[in-house]
Please model this.
Amino acid sequence: MPALIAIEPPRQSDVEALLRLSSEFTLALYPAENNYLLGLAELERAGVCVYVARAEDGTALGIAATVPLEADTLELKRMFVHPAARGLGLASQLLGRIEADAASRGIRELRLETGSRHDAALSFYRRLGYARIAAFGPYVGDELSVCFAKAL
Model:
């Protein structure tokens, strides 16, 4: 299913609904102290890009954001696909768009953190060429964090 993917403001009711579902999912797996989700205000900061994947009818089905880390490095945050839309290739399309946009802007590396209890995410990132790296930033010392990176 090809999705329409664009950078959009996070403060939209359907995007906020996906963010809530993402938060609920994450909080069901990890305690609050092991949770690094960005809130709406953080997603609205300068330099942060929120990508929204929509069905042809405009329904928001998936989200992801990029946050600048260094001049040539971005961090992927809030990657989430609505449970009803999983298995359709939307996450791959969303990440492919993000990687293409980043590379076109001179970004050399995309990094991310996911949790050790999220088997589907671990498998997904490995399948798309992401390699495990040492924990960085706020994830250093968190035994539930697993960090990945991919050169673009």
User: Anything to note?
Assistant: The mean pLDDT is 95. The beta strands are 4-7, 49-54, 60-70, 73-81, 109-115, 131-133, 145-151.
